[in-house]
C-alpha cells in the first residue's frame, strides 16, 4: 500500500515537473502565459467594438454613400436615432443563409476531398502534402496544400456561371452583402467558441496549448496552437485561406459586376483594385506552402482573433475599396492610374522578393544566392519544450539587410495603392492603409518580442547588424 502511494506521489511530482518545464520553456517562446492590463484592455476593446466597426463601415456605405461622418452627425444632432439606422438595415435572410452555407461547405469539400493536382503540371508551384515548422512542443504538422486549386476551381465555376449558365447573377454577393455579414458573424463566433471548448476538453496536441486562465484573453488569442479535426482538417490553414481569401477576389468581381449593372461601365479604378488585389490573392495561393512558415501558422494560436477575423474582418474590411467604388464610380486620369499601378506593383515586388529571399535562405540553409552573392547571416539557437536544442540562421543581407521587416514595407506600399485608386473624396477607402499600418507595426513589435525571447543574445547581435524595422534610417 505504502509502495503504491509512493509510486503515485512520484508520478504526480513527475507530472508537475513536466508542467513546470513546459511553462518555463514556453514562457521563453510563443504566446504569453500571463496577461498584462494593456493586452487585456485591448482585447476587451476589440471584442466589444470590432463587430461594431465592421457594421458601421458597411452600413455607412449602404445608407450614407460611404460617408463615415454623416451617420454620427445624424445621431448627434438628433436627426436620426439608432433605431432608425437599425430598422433600415437588412436582416438575415434564408437566401443569404443558403448561399453562405453552400459556399462554406463547398470550400470545406475542396479543402479536404480534392488532393492537389496543380503541382503535377505547374512548374515551380509547391503543392500537395507539405510540412509546417516545428511547434514549441517539437511537433511538425503535415498539411495538404491545395489552395491554388480551390481558388482556380471556384473562379472557373464563377466565370462559367457569369458567361454561360447564368444560374445566379454575378452581383449576388453585393446584393446580399449585409445579410451575408450576419452569416459570416455566426460562423466566426461559432468557430471561435468551438475552438475554445475544444482547446479545454479535447485538444489536438495538449503540449502546444496555452491557457492563461483569463477567459477573454484565451477566447481572443486562442488556446490550441494547431486545432485539427481528423488528420487533415486544420482550422488555421482553412480559415486563414478559405473561405475568406478565396472569397476576396469573388467579392471584388461582384462589385465590378454591380458597377457595370448600375452605370453601364466598369471604371479604371475598379479594374485597378481588382487587378492589384487579385495579384495579392493569387500570390498567397501560389505561395501557400511558404505561408506555413509565417507568423499566423507558426506562432499564433487559434482563437477569435483568427477565427472571427478570417470570417468577418478580412472579407468585409479588406474589400472596402471595391464596395466604395460601387457607390462612387471614380474614373482616374491616366497619369493617376499609372502612378497607382506602379506603386502597387513596386510594393508587390518588394513584398514578394523579401519573402522569397527569406524562404530561399531558410530552405537551403543559407546555401543559395541572394542578389548574386552568398547571403550573410548570424547563427542562432533556441530550445523547445522538451529541452531539445535547435539551430537556426538570421539573414543579414538582401532586403533583410535593409530592414528587419522590409516585407511589411512592400505590403504597406501595395495597400496604399489600393486606397489611392479610390481618389480623395472620402476617408472610408483609406481605412485599409491605416489598419494595415497599425497591424503590421504591432505585428513587427510582437514578432520581435517573440524572437528576442526565442533567440536571446543572438537576437541582440542581429538587431545590432540590422538596426531598423520597416524604413531604413527612420524606424
Ligand atoms: P515574416 O514572414 O517576416 O516572418 C517573421 C519570422 O521570420 C520571424 O518570426 C522569424 O521566425 C523569421 N525571421 C525574422 N527575421 C529573419 C531573418 N533575418 N532571416 C531569417 N528569418 C527571419 O512575418 P509574417 O509571417 O508576419 O508575414 C508574412 C507576410 O505576410 C508578410 O509579407 C506580411 O506583409 C504578410 N501579412 C499580411 C497580412 C494581411 O492581412 N494582408 C497580415 C499579416 C502578414 P523564426 O522563429 O523562424 O526565426
TrEMBL record:
The keyword Transcription does not apply. This is 7-dehydrocholesterol reductase. One of its GO terms (cellular component) is endoplasmic reticulum membrane. Catalyzes the last step of the cholesterol synthesis pathway, which transforms cholesta-5,7-dien-3beta-ol (7-dehydrocholesterol,7-DHC) into cholesterol by reducing the C7-C8 double bond of its sterol core. Can also metabolize cholesta-5,7,24-trien-3beta-ol (7-dehydrodemosterol, 7-DHD) to desmosterol, which is then metabolized by the Delta(24)-sterol reductase (DHCR24) to cholesterol. One of its GO terms (molecular function) is 7-dehydrocholesterol reductase activity. GO terms for biological process: brassinosteroid biosynthetic process; cholesterol biosynthetic process. PROSITE patterns: STEROL_REDUCT_1 (PS01017), STEROL_REDUCT_2 (PS01018). It catalyses: 7-dehydrodesmosterol + NADPH + H(+) = desmosterol + NADP(+); cholesterol + NADP(+) = 7-dehydrocholesterol + NADPH + H(+). Residues 1-15 have a biased composition (Basic and acidic residues). The chain crosses the membrane at residues 37-58, 92-114, 148-168, 180-201, 237-257, 269-286, 306-327, 334-351, 415-440. It is a multi-pass membrane protein. Pathway: Steroid biosynthesis; cholesterol biosynthesis. Residues 1-25 are annotated as: Disordered. Its EC number is 1.3.1.21. Belongs to the ERG4/ERG24 family. It comes from Calcarius ornatus. Keywords: Cholesterol biosynthesis, Cholesterol metabolism, Endoplasmic reticulum, Lipid biosynthesis, Lipid metabolism, Membrane, NADP, Oxidoreductase, Steroid biosynthesis, Steroid metabolism, Sterol biosynthesis, Sterol metabolism, Transmembrane, Transmembrane helix. Its main location: endoplasmic reticulum. It comes from the Eukaryota. The gene is Dhcr7. It is found in: Endoplasmic reticulum membrane.
Amino acid at each position: 500500500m505504502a509502495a503504491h502511494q509512493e509510486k503515485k506521489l512520484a508520478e504526480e511530482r513527475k507530472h508537475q515537473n513536466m508542467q513546470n518545464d513546459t511553462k518555463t520553456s514556453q514562457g521563453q517562446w510563443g504566446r504569453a502565459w500571463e496577461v498584462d492590463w494593456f493586452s487585456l484592455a485591448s482585447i476587451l476593446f476589440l471584442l466589444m467594438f470590432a463587430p461594431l466597426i465592421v457594421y458601421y463601415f458597411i452600413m455607412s456605405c449602404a445608407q450614407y454613400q460611404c460617408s463615415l461622418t454623416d451617420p454620427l452627425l445624424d445621431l448627434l444632432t438628433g436627426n436620426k436615432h439608432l433605431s432608425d439606422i437599425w430598422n433600415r438595415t437588412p436582416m438575415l435572410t434564408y437566401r443569404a443563409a443558403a448561399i453562405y452555407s453552400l459556399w462554406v461547405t463547398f470550400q470545406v469539400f475542396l479543402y479536404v476531398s480534392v488532393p492537389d493536382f496543380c503541382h503535377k503540371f505547374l512548374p515551380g508551384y509547391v503543392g500537395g502534402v507539405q510540412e509546417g515548422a516545428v511547434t514549441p512542443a517539437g511537433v511538425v504538422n503535415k498539411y495538404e496544400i491545395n489552395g491554388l486549386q480551390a481558388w482556380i476551381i471556384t473562379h472557373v465555376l464563377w466565370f462559367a456561371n457569369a458567361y454561360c449558365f447564368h444560374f445566379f447573377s454575378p452581383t449576388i454577393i453585393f446584393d446580399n452583402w449585409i445579410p451575408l455579414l450576419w452569416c459570416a458573424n455566426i460562423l466566426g463566433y461559432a468557430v471561435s467558441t468551438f475552438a475554445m471548448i475544444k482547446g479545454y476538453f479535447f485538444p489536438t496536441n495538449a503540449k502546444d496549448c496555452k491557457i492563461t486562465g483569463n477567459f477573454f484573453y484565451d477566447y481572443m488569442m486562442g488556446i490550441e496552437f494547431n486545432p485539427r479535426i481528423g488528420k487533415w482538417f486544420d482550422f488555421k490553414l482553412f480559415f486563414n485561406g478559405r473561405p475568406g481569401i478565396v472569397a476576396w477576389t469573388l467579392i471584388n468581381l461582384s462589385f465590378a459586376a454591380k458597377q457595370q449593372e448600375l452605370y453601364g461601365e466598369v471604371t479604371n479604378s475598379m479594374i485597378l483594385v481588382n487587378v492589384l488585389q487579385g495579384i495579392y490573392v493569387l500570390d498567397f495561393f501560389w505561395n501557400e506552402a511558404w505561408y506555413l512558415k509565417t507568423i499566423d501558422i507558426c506562432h499564433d494560436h487559434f482563437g477569435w482573433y483568427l477565427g472571427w477575423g478570417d470570417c468577418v474582418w478580412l472579407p468585409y474590411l479588406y474589400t472596402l475599396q471595391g464596395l466604395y467604388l460601387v457607390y462612387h464610380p471614380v474614373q482616374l486620369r491616366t497619369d493617376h492610374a499609372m502612378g497607382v499601378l506602379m506603386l502597387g506593383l513596386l510594393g508587390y515586388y518588394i513584398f514578394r522578393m523579401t519573402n522569397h529571399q527569406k524562404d530561399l535562405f531558410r530552405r537551403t540553409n543559407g546555401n543559395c544566392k541572394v542578389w548574386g552573392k552568398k547571403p550573410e547571416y548570424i547563427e542562432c539557437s533556441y530550445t523547445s519544450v522538451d529541452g531539445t536544442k535547435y539551430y537556426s540562421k538570421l539573414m543579414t543581407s538582401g532586403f533583410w539587410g535593409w530592414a528587419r521587416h522590409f516585407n511589411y514595407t512592400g505590403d504597406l506600399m501595395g495597400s496604399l495603392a489600393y486606397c489611392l485608386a479610390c481618389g480623395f473624396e472620402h476617408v472610408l477607402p483609406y481605412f485599409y492603409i491605416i489598419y494595415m499600418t497599425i497591424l503590421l507595426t504591432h505585428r513587427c513589435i510582437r514578432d520581435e518580442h517573440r524572437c528576442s525571447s526565442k533567440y536571446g543574445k543572438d537576437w541582440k547581435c542581429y538587431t545590432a547588424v540590422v538596426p531598423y524595422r520597416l524604413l531604413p534610417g527612420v524606424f
